[in-house]
Amino acid sequence: MEKKQFQAESKRLLEMMINSIYSQKEIFLRELISNASDAIDKIYYKALTDEALRFDKDSYYIKVAADKENRTLKITDTGIGMTKEDLENNLGIIAKSGSLAFKNENELKDGHDIIGQFGVGFYSAFMVADVVTVISKAVGSETAYKWESTGTEGYTIEPYEKDTVGTEIILKIKENTEEENYDEYVEEYRLKSIIKKYSDFIRYPIKMDVTASRLKEGSENEYEDYEEEQIINSMVPIWRKNKSELAPEDYENFYKEKHYGFDKPLKHIHISVDGTIRYNAILFIPEKIPFDYYSKEFEKGLELYSNGVLIMDKCADLLPDYFSFVKGMVDSEDLSLNISREILQHDRQLKLIAKNINKKIKSELQILLKNEREKYEEFYQSFGRQLKFGIYNDFGTHKEVLQDLLMFYSSKEKKLVTLDEYVERMPEDQKYIYYASGESNERIDKLPQTELVAEKGYEILYFTDEVDEFAIRMLMTYKEKEFKSVSSADLGIEAEESENNSSPEDTENKDLFDYMKETLSGKVKDVRASKRLRSHPVCFSTDGEVTIEMEKILKAMPN
Ligand code: ADP
Ligand code: MG
């Protein structure tokens, strides 16, 4: 048996690794399974060029087995295996990646799925184990070897008996300490859920012996436990499938499986991009507002996968705030990850993907609006507010993206209309887009200020949401038409054109108006005869920037 020390640098690196690179201990399983998957990929690639090797997909698998009594966890694969040199070079030298070398040697630039690249993932096993044993037999090799290490002290290596090609990794799970409990890593249900979470889309079966229950033979109500080998992962990620192979139910099931929401998605968006940056994405527009949507607890973001392996639960950078309701995932082979594979090294790729996704969401919403109006309105009832906030925030920088998605209740149709629909049917002599603010549609219906505009046959948009008027202020215009509150003094309508100047009525009633002004002093600026009223005797109007409704909101806001 040979005993070797890790190099000094490696020793320090290893300590650092074990203690600080990863934020969660559970990812060791993701790393070991990824390595196993890489090892099977390698044998597959080798078989492509090696006549003597045959790759029969069905005989390749990864197996995870926990032994509670002995407190061990074993990960077995039928991959390419490691020679003695491989064990020394790839496991004995930290930050040396045999997988990266394999990719380079075999010039696997496109369409490959090998995950490894940093040469550190393996050591994450020491976060949960005191001793790690690797038994491996390389393809085409006569002898197998056993490599064993307790972490920082170095490793031993010796010939070993193993019949089949492949690798077995045995972790002696740490004893519990006062701060940390490690029991979960030999717990069947827990291991299953870790596999599901991170490695669900590994392309080879991940098997586990699972305790199941069945009716005792000959009995009608007595059950017995038995061991059953199950495949834990779903293997083929839905996002790698062809859109034409997938039915709406497939997407709905995926939405449920992933716990994106309790509702049914209103719409799914499946994106496959094969350009300067390659990625697949499946996005969902939920039907209902998540219960915590408008609370502080709500976190926006999409799941981020690198080559089918989960890297981030909620990557916030992929979604702008105004589309924060979108759920789903992105998978890309082209991400440069940092060493822990938890963070991205360069956000250039991510920015590109985010930009792309953003455009796609917008266009899909527009298509929904155009082709499935009812569904769009349902969406808008839930998330329209978020779009309006999106326009208002950041000083209106996103208005171009969002303005076509807005809808407001209209006086004419008594239903939601878009700004485009409004402008398209404006009579020629109408200069402005008119709106009226109020607590509810019913209240606005009764507003005296709307009378003249309505009489002219002009449509009025009803603003009942607090954010409406603020958002419109950011827009300023739509298709070069300015927005105008029905309560502003200058409505741009002929009948009241002279209203700003003094009219004969003003002079005739001067005494009365002066008396009213005096009585209401500090509350109104002026009292004038109006031409805009029909059935109401009096109304307020404003000539400043801020309408009465906005003023109410501003006053109610905490300072
Ligand atoms: P990475 O996967 O980033 O290369 P790791 O530390 O996870 O780094 O693994 C180091 C190297 O050890 C791998 O690149 C691979 O060459 C080798 N290796 C690890 N696990 C296995 C395995 N199950 N089968 C074959 N080779 C393996
Ligand atoms: Mg690895």
Question: Characteristics of this structure?
Answer:
559 residues; 31% helix; single chain; binds magnesium ion; binds adenosine-5'-diphosphate; alpha+beta; 22% strand; six-stranded mixed β-sheet; nine-stranded mixed β-sheet
Helix tally equals 16
Helical coverage, percent range: 25-40%
SSE class: alpha+beta
Low-confidence stretches: none
Strand order of the largest sheet: 1-6-5-4-7-3-2-8-9
Report the span from N to C terminus.
75 Å
Biggest pleated-sheet summary = 9 strands, mixed
Strand content: 15-25%
Strand segment count: 20
- The oligomeric state of the chains shown is single chain
Subunit structure: Homodimer.
GO molecular function, one term: unfolded protein binding
Region (A): 1-341
Function: Molecular chaperone. Has ATPase activity.
What is shown here, in short?
Keywords: ATP-binding, Chaperone, Cytoplasm, Nucleotide-binding, Stress response. The protein has 559 residues and is α+β, with helices and mostly antiparallel strands. The chain has helices at residues 8-21, 27-49, 84-91, 98-105, 188-199, 248-257, 347-371, 373-392, 399-402, 419-424, 441-445, 450-455, 466-475, 504-508, 510-519, 548-556; strands spanning 2-4, 62-67, 72-77, 129-137, 144-149, 155-160, 166-173, 206-215, 223-231, 265-274, 278-286, 302-306, 309-315, 327-332, 407-410, 416-418, 433-437, 460-463, 477-478, 481-485.
Question: Could you characterize the architecture of this molecule?
Answer:
The chain is an alpha+beta fold and 559 residues long. The protein is built from 16 helices and 20 strands. A nine-stranded mixed beta sheet has the order 1-6-5-4-7-3-2-8-9, covered by helices on one side. Strands 16-15-18-17-20-19 form a six-stranded mixed beta sheet, with helices on both faces. Strand 15 and strand 16 form a beta hairpin. Helix 2 crosses helix 5, helix 7 crosses helix 8 and helix 8 packs across helix 13. The longest helix is centred in the middle third of the chain and has 25 residues. The termini are far apart. Adenosine-5'-diphosphate (ADP) binds next to helix 2, helix 3 and helix 4.
